[in-house]
Design a protein that fits this description.
Structural class: mainly beta
Order of helices and strands: EEEEEEE
Distance between the termini: 6 Å
Number of strands: 7
Strand order of the largest sheet: 3-4-5-6
Number of domains: 1
Strand content: over 45%
Largest sheet: 4 strands, antiparallel
Radius of gyration: 14 Å
Length: 81
């Protein structure tokens, strides 16, 4: 079984959690770049000692986007092989 993170849910209340989910078929958000709208996909979530690093993909480029701290309000789901 792999340790690749599939989904990160952050928040104390289930209905109010913010969810980061790695998906290749649905953009995480859209942004204007060079005068046209481009799709950004959540590419990877990497666990470190104190936080999670979130990386986005735009076309063939992967960019570090942000850090989310580890705490008792964070739930993690992994990919199943």
């Amino acid at each position: 079984m792999s340790n690749k993170i599939r989904k990160l849910s952050i928040g104390a209340e289930v209905k109010e959690r913010f969810i980061y989910e790695v998906r290749a078929d649905r953009p995480f958000f859209k942004d204007m770049k060079n005068g046209k709208v481009e799709d950004f996909f959540l590419h990877e979530i990497v666990e470190t000692e104190n936080h999670y690093n979130i990386h986005l993909r735009n076309n063939d480029e992967v960019h570090f986007w942000k850090k989310e701290p580890k705490n008792q309000f964070t739930a993690v789901e992994f990919f199943l092989d």
